[in-house]
Amino acid sequence: MNDLEKEAFIKENTSEWIKTGAKYKRLRMAYGLTMTKLSRMTGFSATKLGCFENGRPILNRRVVQRSYIMVLQIIKTEISKIEDESTIAI
User: Fold this and answer.
1) Could you tell me the residue range of the domain that residue 17 belongs to?
2) Strand, coil or helix: what is 46?
3) Which SS3 state, helix, strand or coil, does residue 34 take?
4) CATH number of the structural domain spanning residue 22
5) Rounded average pLDDT per 10-residue block, the chain, 90 residues
6) Dihedral angle, C-alpha 37, 43, 45, 48, nearest 10 °
7) What pLDDT is attached to residue 83?
8) What is the pTM of this model?
9) Do residues 52 and 64 touch, judged by C-beta distance below 8 A?
10) Is the distance from CB of 55 to CB of 21 less than 8 angstroms?
11) Burial 21-54, CB ≥16 within 10 A → b, else e
């Protein structure tokens, strides 16, 4: 891909990247995850994750997105277990 094609690709996808990144940032924050903790859980640098959340171009965008999904599913499962345990104890 030459520079002009790269620029066109970025321009074409930036709006969608911004929407997607904002969605995952809201989810991360709703689950109380810091960027540092998410970085440790996914193996991606906080800088790369920040770029993803802010809609900037990054390599392996789909891999980063899948990692977010995986981590958020794990946390959701853990929260459900805790909620289930607390209702049993009542």
Assistant:
1) 3-89
2) helix
3) coil
4) 1.10.260
5) 91 95 94 93 95 94 94 90 70
6) -110
7) 79
8) 0.80
9) yes
10) yes
11) beebbebbeeeebebeebbebbebeeebbbbbbe
